[in-house]
Specification:
The complex is a heterodimer. Helices cover 57% and strands 17% of the residues of chain A. Chain A folds into 2 domains: 2-51 and 274-403, no CATH class; 81-258, no CATH class. Residues 69-77 of chain A have low confidence and may be disordered. In chain A, a hairpin with a 2-residue loop joins strand 6 (175-178) and strand 7 (181-189). The two termini of chain A are 30 Å apart. By secondary structure, chain A is α+β, with helices and mostly antiparallel strands. In chain A, strands 2-3-8-5-7-6 form a 6-stranded mixed β-barrel. Chain B is of the alpha/beta class. Chain B has a single domain (5-227), classed as Rossmann fold, CATH 3.40.50. Chain B contains 7 helices and 10 strands. A 6-stranded mixed β-sheet of chain B has the order 6-7-8-3-9-10, sandwiched between helices. The longest helix of chain B has 18 residues, at 177-194. Chain B is globular and about 50 Å long. Chain B starts with a strand and ends in a 5-residue tail after the last strand. Classes of the chains: A alpha+beta, B alpha/beta. At the A-B interface, helix 1, helix 10 and helix 13 of A face helix 2 and helix 3 of B. Bound molecules: adenosine-5'-triphosphate (ATP) and magnesium ion. Chain B: This is ABC transporter ATP-binding protein.
Chain lengths: 405, 232
């Protein structure tokens, strides 16, 4: 009986292709929208977390301007005086418990090696930069004391630069042309991978800060200072000391606000993943609407065909079908349609998620929970609205079902 | 031998209270195995109502209905369905074929619920279609058939199971005289040679002439009951 009901159901599905197709379509749209959006949202959150953890641990950043967060390196301080190397020296000398203090100044430039050129951002700093940012060397060495002091034109390059300019060649010892001067490549950094929002951390050239100041920016300014704290428990106290020191150095009276800000990576992490979490929730909400719309679509199609289906049930009952045989057929039909729609939806969502996460540069993970949830929800709607009218009709006397208008 | 069908004081009331309408008003009727009965009467006299009750498609409001000494009015829905499945063939006043479903599949449907094999269903359906003169029309859907052809598919569906009793509500209502006569010849043949008891509603005296017995309905009750030929 189960098998013959199954065959009957399949035949009915084939016979009513348009109706079947529309039902499946409603489920497909609902399922795939929800899964895709939630998967991408989760991917974005993950990407932000990865990026933040790759910034380095126990890291404090001193930047110009008042509080407010922004992506690292962005947002200059309007009106506040720039930092200087004297500030860096003062921090190093007056605050204890620091693992590294690295000044930072960046400028975009075109780098050329032989016939290849690439436009990138050149950062000036010191050896402490590698400690603070947890960078590792893939080859070569870091700066010597003499090179740092004199601001010699030597550089370390990120993986992206190596790949784009040198391909399979070994670049250490080669010379790299940066705008209008050339510098010697002394080391290569281990890749950190792509960060979210399209920012590639490996697309970078690091030089002694004095070299960048002299050759590229043309002034003595330092745009931000990175401070790595040796012991995690000291972060709060170091932060306070830094603030006091900078206020002192800038002679800010008690009535003045800070014209710089000190952020730690944890704060940035929380702020950023908070934002992406809000985004994920928002996406999920939008997607739920499409799930609902899909569900209403299914409902409409099923209800529109109730009259025809009721008559069909009347005919089947009249020639001797039992109520439960008719119901089984309709139930199987609804389940087959709903599962088919759900599976196609999941397949489509997986393709879309993989494709879009590649475009958006976020990691892709298959989220079992959301796949299951949206499948069960829309399949449930399909089954419910496919089955309920049948259940009502099968309870009628055959003659009443046949008379249904 | 007891009668195949016995109705005792059958009533059918549609609606409730003030708006209620008594379509059948205490019908008594006995039908023997092998009879060929034509039911006639003016429109609205309760012929279809009586047929639906006889066909176990509808339940009476009162009275007793015995089918081979079984009290049908006391049976459950499922038991009545099984009675229809195994003993009855019904041809509706409207054809009531499944839409977008081939004639062949429509005719096979009752066999499907009897659990017969695909092979047996095919053979039986083809034979039934041939009997009603629709050989080779099996793959047509109702929308592709004329009214008369649809009526014949409906008859094929009713007789494909070799029922004990065939109930036909105006089987020639939509047909021209020639086709009507063919259908009546078919019913006569089923009655004479296969021993199928036939109950048929008709408005046409010419068609009623084929029957062995003519029952006239007026206002929900039997007005006259005339035997033309003996049951063989
Ligand atoms: N479902 C129903 N609800 C209410 N009244 C009904 C219903 N079915 C039939 N009737 C009424 O019962 C009466 C008998 O109807 P029935 O269909 O049995 O007539 P009939 O003799 O078959 O007529 P016709 O020759 O036109 O087919 C009619 O007056 C009709 O209006
Ligand atoms: Mg009638």
């Amino acid at each position: 009986m189960l098998w013959s009901s199954f065959l009957l159901a399949l035949r009915e599905i084939r016979r009513n292709l348009l109706r079947s197709f529309l039902t499946i379509l409603g489920i497909v749209i609902g399922v795939s929208a929800v899964i895709t959006m939630v998967t991408l949202g989760n991917g974005a959150t993950q990407a932000v977390k990865n990026q933040v953890s790759s910034l380095g641990s126990n890291l404090l950043q001193i930047r110009n301007g008042q509080r407010m967060m922004g992506p690292p390196g962005g947002g200059g301080g309007g009106g506040s005086p720039p930092f200087s190397l004297e500030d860096v020296a003062a921090i190093r000398n007056q605050i204890t418990g620091l693992a590294a203090v690295a000044p930072e100044v960046s400028k975009s430039a075109t780098v050329v090696s032989m016939s290849n050129n690439w436009s990138t951002s050149v950062t000036g700093s010191s050896n402490d930069f590698f400690i603070a940012g947890s960078w590792k060397l893939a080859a070569g060495r870091t700066f010597s004391e003499a090179e740092e002091k004199a601001g010699q034109t030597v550089c370390l390059i990120g993986e992206t630069i190596r790949r784009e300019l040198f391909g399979t060649q070994q670049p250490v010892g080669e010379s790299l042309r940066v705008n209008n001067f050339s510098c010697e490549i002394i080391g290569i950094l281990v890749s950190k991978g792509q960060a979210s929002m399209g920012r590639d951390q490996d697309d970078t050239v690091i030089m002694p800060i004095k070299a960048v100041q002299r050759r590229l920016t043309g002034n003595q300014n330092v745009s931000s200072i990175q401070v790595s704290v040796a012991d995690e428990n000291d972060i709060t106290s170091v932060k306070e000391q830094l603030t006091n020191l900078m206020r002192e150095r800038r002679r800010l009276g008690d009535d003045k606000d800070d014209n710089f800000n000190v952020q730690d990576t944890r704060q940035i992490a929380e702020a950023l993943s908070g934002t992406t979490q809000v985004m994920t929730t928002l996406l999920a909400a939008v997607a739920s609407v499409s799930l609902l719309v899909g569900g209403i679509g299914i409902m409409n199609i099923m209800l529109v065909s109730v009259t025809e289906r009721t008559r069909e049930i009347g005919i089947r009952l009249a020639i001797g079908a039992l109520e439960r045989e008719v119901l089984l057929q309709f139930l199987i039909e609804a389940v087959v349609l709903a599962s088919l729609g759900g599976l196609v939806g999941i397949g489509l969502a997986t393709l879309a998620s993989i494709g879009l996460s590649q475009v958006m540069n976020v990691p892709y993970t298959f989220n079992v929970g959301i796949n299951l949830l949206s499948f069960v929800f829309s399949a449930g709607i399909g089954v419910l609205f496919g089955y309920m009218p049948a259940k009502r009709a099968a309870r009628l006397d055959p003659i009443d079902a046949l008379r249904h208008e | 031998m007891s009668a195949l069908i016995e109705l005792r004081g059958i009533t059918k009331i549609y609606g409730q209270g003030q708006a209620s309408f008594k379509a059948l008003d205490g019908v008594d009727m006995t039908i023997e195995q092998g009879d060929f009965v034509a039911i006639m009467g003016p429109s609205g006299s309760g012929k279809s109502t009586a047929m639906n009750i006889l066909g176990c498609l509808d339940v009476p409001s009162g009275g007793e209905y015995l089918f081979r000494d079984v009290h049908v009015e006391q049976l459950s829905r499922n038991e009545r369905a099984l009675l229809r499945r195994h003993y009855l063939g019904f041809v509706f006043q409207g054809f009531n074929l499944l839409a977008r479903t081939s004639a062949q599949e429509n005719v096979e449907l009752p066999l499907l619920y009897r659990g017969e094999s695909t092979e047996a269903r095919h053979t039986a359906a083809q034979a039934a279609l041939k009997q009603v003169g629709l050989e080779g029309w099996g793959h047509h859907t109702p929308a592709e058939l004329s009214g008369g052809q649809q009526q014949r598919v409906a008859i094929a569906r009713a007789l494909v199971t070799n029922p004990t009793i065939l109930l036909a509500d105006e089987p020639t209502g939509n047909l021209d005289t020639k086709t009507s006569n063919e259908i009546m010849a078919l019913l006569t043949d089923l009655n004479e040679n296969k021993g199928i008891t036939v109950l048929m509603v008709t408005h046409e005296p010419d068609m009623a002439e084929y029957a062995k017995r003519i029952i006239h309905f007026v206002d929900g009750n039997i007005d006259s009951d005339v035997r033309k030929r003996e049951i063989t």
